[in-house]
Write a structure and sequence with these properties.
Length: 351
C-alpha cells in the first residue's frame, strides 16, 4: 500500500527482496467516511464563487467553522490539543439529506447512545444534547454522508492529522501513573502554554477560508511584538457575515491568551451569526438586562416551535430530507439559553 509510485505494479516484483527505489513520506487517514477534498482544495476551487456569491460562500464558511468548533470542543473535553490546525488537515465529506423514515419505524429517530472509544474529531450533527459535540455517530434519520456529488449540500468536516497533538496529564486509573502525575509541575499538568493554541489557529483559519493570507506571514512585525486588534489586517466586507467573522477572528487572535475567547464561545458566536438573534431584536432603547433576557427567552421558544414545524413538514413530505444544517440548528436551539446569547451578542458588539 505504501510503496513508491515508481515501484512496479506486478505484486510479485514488489516482494521484500525488491525494495522500492526510494522511500516517501505517506500520511494514512483511517475514517468511517471517505473525504472528497481538503479545506485547502475547497478554498482554491471557490475563489470565483466567493466574489460572485459572497453571501452564500461566507455562510458556508460559518458552517465549516461551526463544525470545527464542535470537534475542538469535544477534543478539549478529553484534554486533547490538536496544535496543527491548517486547511490541509481539515477534510470534507459529501453529505446529502436523507429522506424521512417510515412513520411505522419511529424508533429510528432515536440518536445512538454509544460513543466510540477513540478521541473522535468529527463534529456531531445530532441535535441531542446528551451526545458530546465531537462524536461521529450519524443518526439513521440524520444526514447521510455519501461519496457522490453533493456540492449544493453542506459538506461534513473532519479534523485529521494528530501527529502534533498533546493530551493533558490526568484521567488515568493506574495507581502508579497517578503517583507520577502528582509530581508534575502545575504548568505541565495544565499545559498552560497550549491552553488556547487551537483557538489561535482557528483565528488564522478564518482569514484563510476567506481567501486572505495568514496575517502573521504577511506582517512579520506581529510576531515580534505585542500587537493590538487594530494591527491585524481587516477582512473585506463582502456580505452581512463579514463583520461578524472579522470580529471573531480578532477575538481568537488576541495576543494575550487570557483575553482570547475559548472555542465554546467562538461556537456560540458562529451560531448567532448563522441563526440570530439579529440586531433589531435587541436594539430597544435603554432596556435592562432582565428585559433583554426575557426577550431572548421568547425568541428561543419561538425558534424551537418553528424548528419542530419544519421537521414535521419534512416528515410528511418524503422528498424533503433532513440536512446537516437542520441538525446543527437543532443542536443550537436545544442548548440555547438567554444568558449565553446575551454574552455572544456582546462579543459581536451588537449590544
Amino acid at each position: 500500500m505504501l510503496t513508491s509510485p515508481d515501484a512496479p505494479k506486478d505484486p510479485l516484483s514488489a516482494l521484500p527482496s525488491h525494495p522500492p527505489a526510494q522511500e516517501q513520506d505517506c500520511v494514512v487517514v483511517i475514517t468511517r467516511e471517505v473525504p472528497h477534498q481538503t479545506a485547502s482544495d475547497f478554498v482554491q476551487d471557490s475563489a470565483a464563487s466567493h466574489q460572485s456569491e459572497p453571501e452564500v460562500y461566507e455562510r458556508r464558511v460559518c458552517f465549516l467553522l461551526l463544525q470545527l468548533c464542535n470537534g475542538l470542543e469535544h477534543l478539549k473535553e478529553h484534554g486533547i490539543i490538536h496544535r496543527d490546525l491548517c486547511l490541509e488537515n481539515l477534510l470534507l465529506v459529501h453529505c446529502a439529506p436523507q429522506a424521512s423514515p417510515d412513520p411505522s419505524s419511529a424508533t429510528s429517530w432515536a440518536p445512538p447512545t454509544t460513543i466510540p472509544p477513540a478521541p473522535a474529531a468529527t463534529p456531531s450533527s445530532c441535535p441531542s444534547a446528551a451526545l458530546p459535540a465531537g462524536v461521529t455517530p450519524t443518526p439513521p434519520a440524520g444526514p447521510a454522508c455519501q461519496g457522490g456529488p453533493g456540492e449544493k449540500h453542506l459538506p461534513r468536516l473532519i479534523i485529521s492529522n494528530f501527529l502534533k497533538a498533546k493530551q493533558k496529564p490526568g484521567g488515568t486509573t493506574n495507581l502508579q501513573q497517578k503517583k507520577s502525575q502528582a509530581r508534575l509541575a502545575p504548568e505541565i499538568v495544565s499545559a498552560s502554554q497550549y491552553r488556547k493554541f487551537d483557538e489561535f489557529q482557528t483565528g488564522i483559519l478564518i482569514y484563510e477560508l476567506l481567501h486572505q493570507p495568514n496575517p502573521f506571514e504577511v506582517r512579520a512585525q506581529l510576531r515580534e511584538q505585542d500587537y493590538r486588534q487594530e494591527d491585524l489586517p481587516p477582512l473585506p466586507a463582502l456580505s452581512l457575515y463579514s463583520p461578524g467573522l472579522q470580529r471573531l477572528a480578532h477575538l481568537l487572535l488576541q495576543a494575550d491568551p487570557i483575553k482570547r475567547i475559548r472555542i465554546g464561545e467562538a461556537k456560540r458566536v458562529l451560531q448567532c451569526l448563522l441563526w440570530g438573534p439579529r440586531r433589531e431584536l435587541v436594539e430597544q432603547p435603554g432596556p435592562s438586562e432582565e428585559v433583554l433576557c426575557a426577550t431572548l427567552s421568547n425568541w428561543i421558544d419561538m425558534k424551537r416551535a418553528l424548528m419542530m414545524m419544519k421537521f414535521a413538514e419534512k416528515a410528511v413530505d418524503r422528498r424533503r430530507g433532513v440536512e446537516l444544517e437542520d441538525w446543527l440548528c437543532c443542536q443550537y436551539l436545544a442548548s440555547a439559553e438567554p444568558g449565553a446569547l446575551l454574552q455572544s451578542l456582546k462579543l459581536l458588539q451588537l449590544l
